[in-house]
């Protein structure tokens, strides 16, 4: 059994047991660290002999699947699998699984950190002090404010749990409506228009689909309060970035905090705006989350080789 592992350099360093345990299970293991990018021709070459591909964010498209003549199983190292052509994999008889919920606390921590940093301009003030400037400006309390969460899965619920500690009025919108969790977390489900018009903070924690791509656009941004902040820890493709730049420049909304972009690293001016806090897709990048995801990954490789039932199959 041959395995190809495509993950960030830091993930390998954080939990080397992922590689070590996979090497015990598979005849050949190839590791491609992805921090500096992966050339398509190199990926196609390495995929050719793979029975199993473990992947974080690198695109596994038709070209890769067609090149991997022996491919039987794709394991998403994380939850969101929009970088994998799942429909084509299914057509080819290739199994795809992921690891949902394993980085929920990590992503929720970041979302809340970005919300707090936005409210008090922490990143901007840090940069000013380092530049020997001392501008003592006013911010806003998060306490008692209205929070709108788009996507109420494991991450959305973890965000709501944290919001309770700040006595926030929490609304949620999305296809997945866990009424029991909402009741326990003091969350009320609402329609998108109400969430956008009433929220002081809007956090995107939903998966990207063909239906919701660019659903944050000129129209939806125009429904938000001019004093509101937009936080995205999910996928950059949820936002029309041209429209967001316009809203941020014109004062349509007060600010944004973005961990994800449509093109990564971002190539446009969005991340450079003074009322934007930008981080390099680190929502799930904690030691704890990497251990959790690695454990699921190793378990599923063992199950696959033993022809046992797999965890978290997505099709």
From TrEMBL:
CDD domains: PGDH_like_2 (cd12172)
Organism: Bacillus mesophilum
Name of the protein in question: Phosphoglycerate dehydrogenase
Keyword Oxidoreductase: yes
PROSITE patterns to which the protein is assigned, alphabetical: D_2_HYDROXYACID_DH_3 (PS00671)
GO molecular function, one term: oxidoreductase activity, acting on the CH-OH group of donors, NAD or NADP as acceptor
Family as reported in the entry's similarity comment: Belongs to the D-isomer specific 2-hydroxyacid dehydrogenase family.
Keywords, comma-separated and alphabetical: NAD, Oxidoreductase
InterPro entries associated with the record: D-2-hydroxyacid_DH, D-isomer_2_OHA_DH_cat_dom, D-isomer_DH_CS, D-isomer_DH_NAD-bd, NAD(P)-bd_dom_sf
Record domain D-isomer specific 2-hydroxyacid dehydrogenase catalytic: where: 19-314
Domain annotation D-isomer specific 2-hydroxyacid dehydrogenase NAD-binding: ranges: 112-283
A Pfam entry, by short name: 2-Hacid_dh_C
Entry-linked PANTHER family: D-ISOMER SPECIFIC 2-HYDROXYACID DEHYDROGENASE FAMILY PROTEIN (AFU_ORTHOLOGUE AFUA_6G10090)
Keyword Oxidoreductase in annotation: yes
């Amino acid at each position: 059994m041959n395995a190809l592992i495509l993950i960030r350099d830091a993930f390998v360093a954080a939990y080397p047991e992922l590689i070590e345990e996979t090497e015990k299970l598979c005849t050949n293991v190839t590791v491609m660290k992805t921090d500096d990018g992966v050339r398509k021709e190199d990926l196609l070459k390495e995929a050719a002999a793979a029975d199993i591909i473990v992947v974080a964010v690198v695109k596994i498209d038709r070209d890769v699947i067609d090149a991997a003549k022996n491919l039987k199983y794709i394991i998403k190292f994380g939850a969101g699998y929009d970088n994998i052509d799942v429909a084509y994999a299914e057509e080819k008889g290739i199994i795809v699984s992921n690891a949902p919920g394993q980085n929920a606390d990590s992503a929720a921590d970041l979302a809340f950190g970005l919300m707090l940093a936005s409210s008090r301009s922490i990143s901007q003030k840090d940069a000013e002090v380092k530049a020997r400037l001392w501008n003592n400006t006013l911010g806003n309390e998060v306490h008692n404010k209205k929070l709108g969460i788009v996507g109420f899965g494991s991450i959305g619920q973890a965000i709501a749990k944290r919001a309770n500690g700040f006595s926030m009025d929490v609304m949620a919108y999305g296809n997945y409506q866990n009424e029991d969790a909402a009741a326990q977390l003091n969350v009320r489900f609402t329609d998108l228009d109400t969430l956008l018009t009433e929220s002081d903070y809007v956090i995107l924690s939903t998966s990207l689909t063909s239906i919701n791509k660019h659903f944050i656009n000129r129209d939806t941004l125009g429904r938000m309060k001019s004093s509101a902040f937009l936080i995205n820890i999910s996928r950059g493709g949820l936002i029309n970035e041209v429209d967001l730049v316009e809203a941020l420049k014109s004062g349509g909304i007060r600010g944004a905090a973005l961990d994800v972009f449509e093109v990564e690293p971002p190539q446009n001016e969005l991340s450079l705006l003074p009322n934007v806090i930008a981080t390099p897709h680190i929502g799930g990048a904690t030691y704890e989350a990497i251990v959790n995801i690695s454990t699921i990954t190793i378990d599923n490789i063992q199950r696959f080789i033993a022809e046992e039932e797999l965890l978290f199959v997505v099709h």
